[in-house]
Amino acid sequence: MPYPLLQIKDLQVDFVNETGTTTAVKNISIEVNRGEIVAIVGESGSGKSVTSLSILQLLPAPPARYAAGSILFSEDGQQQVEMLHQSASALSKIRGHKIAMIFQEPMTSLNPVFTCGQQVMEAIKQHQRISATEAKARTLELFEKVKLPNPSLLMDRYPHQLSGGQKQRVMIAMAMSCNPSLLICDEPTTALDVTVQKTILQLIRGLQETEKMGVIFITHDLGVVAEVADRAVVMYKGAIVEQGSTSQLFHAPQHPYTKGLLACRPILHRKGERLPVVSDFLEGKTTIVSPKTAAVPQAPSTEDILLKVENLNVWFPARKTFFGKPLDYIKAVNDVSFTVRKGETLGLVGESGCGKTTLGRTLLRLIAPTSGAIWYNGQHITAIKKDALKDLRRNIQIIFQDPYSSLNPRMTIGDAIVEPMKVHGILNRASQRKDRAMEMLQKVDLKPEHFNRYPHEFSGGQRQRIVIARALSLGPTFVVCDESVSALDVSVQAQILNLLNDLKQEFDLTTIFISHDLSVVRYISDRIMVMNKGMIEEMGDAEEVYLHPKQEYTKQLIASIPKAAI
After folding, report:
1. Distance between CA atoms of 260 and 219, rounded to whole angstroms?
2. Element spanning 492, H or E
3. What are φ and ψ of residue 457, in 5° steps?
4. What is the pLDDT of residue 286?
5. Where are the beta strands (DSSP E) in 457-509?
6. Which CATH number is 343-356+383-565's, of 2.60.300.12, 3.40.50.720, 3.40.50.300, 3.40.190.80?
């Protein structure tokens, strides 16, 4: 019979600094039984990660302070350990051994100077008295268990030599190395391809069933919750607003916040229809949407070609001789041809490594093509000179995937928006450029008074708005959106998609929207182009490709979308 592995009772976590005290978690109570998966759902800032880090006492103290409550862990259902009162040495015996954790970003969790095999072996030897040979054999066995390709080869590879999905598998192998009773998964599938996400979810579920573990699965993706969780806890602003079985959460949500999270998924809405956001539900402005509204109207067709790509190749040397002559190539983009019409949004879909980002950057000539031709507005741009390229980039802009790394942390956001206007000689005086920047901030639902603030003072969604304002400040006619909503909370994603739709109409933009999420691409695109291994797999009307895919690869992508997202 299942018994409580973990009992969190009336936990309150504060962060104390010179300016005052912020309560991050407010009197929450959660129970996790052996053999079940409990999902903690909520947006950024809801307190999910603070809760999970509190279990293992990983929050820095100060500024973190456990103001109230208890966290009781019981491996056998008899003897309970109060985690909040354990010494550092006692905690080190529990962490990674009895309670393991898979962190959100594997690249920052893995040490870049040690091989993947060394890092898993270190975790094993930390808690088990076995020889290096035995630890290596156990690591190979774990790599096979988490379905890593060619485990013996990956043992000697460094984290940067692995894909995102492979790195996450290494983290799972490390977490499973000592057969923990409780596994905490903190957003382990965020920003992963849907196919990789599906395999990771199946892997965690399979390991949980065979090892009879309890699992806490933290996510903002409700589709993932439906795929893996037995029970769900919904958090908002540090408090639990709703909890119950997964089916109850999806079929009879009680709290307006939960209803908002469910309703703002793009797949429930027609193309061009305004997506509801959580604030609408909290203010009582709207009700939950039925999936019956999901039919997408046909986009008006136009034959005015703005962009034409012919037999484009982008190859990178894979191996070279001692003298630097390439022996082999990675064909990132391989003989690709397509057109984009004026005013159209072309969705570009595929898994990591399929070449979609390389293609997007090559269109802006940020990457030089190996061969082939790109025509923009009738101009052959693959061989144009540097000065002409500068003018071209005023008309073709890119919104990068990660707003954190695409904004200079030492520049105010006002200066970040003004800088490209200076470079391209737009407007004559600094005061005019400042006015234009403030106007653009208002266009993306930010305030003019934000002009002198720095990027770290904004949330991820707000930073993405700033990047959009910077791109549009030049008045481009063509924009490449490179995974611009992939790592955002579902409600923030809805806000950005609404914003992109509004700006597309206002500025008469033509867009290539790059994503690995077919449900988002279906909502925002007129046509979809599916890429696989550098080549075009399938292309056609968005609704047709989504509902009636012709190629097996496209069918696999669609089949990998979590059931609750459909």
Report:
1. 16
2. helix 490-507
3. -85, 5
4. 65
5. 478-482
6. 3.40.50.300
Strand residue runs (E) in 377-500: 379-380, 396-399, 478-482
Structure-block tokens of residue 484: 């611009």
Give the span between the Cα atoms of 304 and 150, in whole angstroms: 49
Report which of residues 225 and 461 the model is more confident about: 225
**Chain center to CA of 416:** 24
CA atoms within 13 Å, Cβ hemisphere of 381: 26
- Helix, strand and coil content of the chain, in percent to the nearest 5, comes to 40, 25, 35
Per-residue tokens: 360: 């997007």
Place of tokens 């046509």: 527
Amino acid, single-letter form, for residue 179: N
Per-residue tokens: 384: 């144009």
Query: In a 10 Å sphere around its CB, with 0-12 CB exposed, 13-18 middle and 19+ buried, how is residue 152 labelled?
Result: exposed
Tokens standing for 557?
A: 């992508």
**pLDDT tops 70 at residue 510:** yes
With H, G, I as helix, E, B as strand and everything else as coil, classify residue 324.
coil
Q: How far apart are CA 501 and CA 345, in angstroms?
A: 10
d(CA 396, CA 398): 7
The residue ranges of every structural domain in the chain are 1-98+184-253, 107-179, 255-294, 343-356+383-565
pLDDT tens per residue, range 285-324: 765 544 444 344 445 455 689 999 999 999 988 778 877 7
Strand blocks (E) in 226-363: 231-236, 239-245, 305-320, 326-341, 345-349
Question: Lowest-pLDDT range, 67-71, 85-89, 557-561?
Answer: 557-561
How far is 229 from 38, CA to CA, in rounded Å? 6
Count CB-CB contacts under 10 A for residue 174.
26
Tokens of residue 125, six digits:
């030897």
CATH class of 1-98+184-253: alpha beta
DSSP 179-203: --SEEEEESTTTT--HHHHHHHHHH
Count CA atoms closer than 13 A to 34's CA, side-chain side. 16
Helix, strand or coil, per DSSP, at residue 272: coil
Sign of the C-alpha dihedral, residues 383, 387, 390, 394? negative
Radius of gyration of the chain (CA): 25
Two tokens, residue 158: 């460094």
Handedness of CA 37, 38, 39, 40 (dihedral sign): negative
Number of residues written out for the chain: 566
